[in-house]
Amino acid sequence: MYILYVHYGYVNRIGGAFLKHYLKDRLKEQRTKLGLTQKEIADKLNIGSTSYQRYENGTREPKLDTLCQLADIFETSTDYLLGRSNKNVPTYSNGKKEDKWDKLGSVLSLSEKEKVIKALTE
Description:
- This is Helix-turn-helix transcriptional regulator.
- Residues 27-81 form the HTH cro/C1-type domain.
- Keywords: DNA-binding.
- One of its GO terms (molecular function) is DNA binding.
- The chain has 122 residues and is mostly helical.
- Helix content is 62%, strand content 10%.
- The protein has a two-stranded antiparallel sheet with strand order 1-2.
- A hairpin with a 2-residue loop joins strand 1 (2-7) and strand 2 (10-15).
- The radius of gyration is 17 Å and the shape is elongated.
């Protein structure tokens, strides 16, 4: 797996061992933070527990759709899981939390929404 990114107008490529190092560590970190087993995560992904174990061991890389599912499960970004960001900012793509966020957003003024977004991203 390789990630292309633009830095000062140049396209750069990172991948291989760099990504595996961050991904495996952050998958384990997020899973243990939630108090879940490898099997429980594998079940949520509809894959075998051995496949998930390989992601955490760094011997196998998840496909893009699986990586997105993992970010949803852990309520974080794919950038954080891949080591492209050190900010573990919660994302709310799951139904219940998204509904709560939408309800909260409907009662806030524009300036209040901006303050909330600023506080969450700092």
